[in-house]
Amino acid sequence: MGDREQVIASANVLAVRADLRAVILVEGRSDQMAVEALAERRERDLAADGVFVVPIGGATNIGHFLEVFGPGGAGVRLAGLCDVGEEAAFRRAL
């Protein structure tokens, strides 16, 4: 199984968690680590709040993750973080 397939499989598993309230979609693992480090610095426990940071393997993959977590999927609150150069891909998908 390739990296993209692993990321998608993990997202599908996460989408059925009963404690899932919100998802922050980020481009990659380093973005995930940065958001989680900032939350920790501000003494926020994202997992306890039901908020999960999900790396999507690049901005062009956002469509699939919107299907998994958006209104037609898990129906949770969504936020996203991407590089300014990838903003158009996020906007098109949204």
Concise summary:
Helices cover 44% and strands 16% of the residues. The chain is α/β, with parallel strands linked by helices and 94 residues long. Strand 1, helix 2 and strand 2 form a beta-alpha-beta unit.
Largest sheet: 3 strands, parallel
Low-pLDDT runs of 5+ residues are none
Number of domains: 1
| SSE string, helices as H and strands as E | HEHEHEH
What is the rounded Rg? 13 Å
**Number of continuous helical runs:** 4
Percent of residues in beta strands: 15-25%
Structural class comes to: alpha/beta
Q: What's the average pLDDT?
A: 87
- Morphology: globular
The count of β-strands is: 3
Distance between the termini: 28 Å
How helical, in percent, are the residues?
Answer: 40-55%
Question: If strands are numbered along the chain, what order do they take across the biggest sheet?
Answer: 2-1-3
Can you characterise this structure?
This protein is an alpha/beta fold. It contains four helices and three strands; from the N terminus they run αβαβαβα. It has helices spanning 3-15, 29-41, 62-69, 87-93, and strands spanning 22-26, 51-55, 77-81. It has a three-stranded parallel beta sheet with strand order 2-1-3, sandwiched between helices. The radius of gyration is 13 Å and the shape is globular.
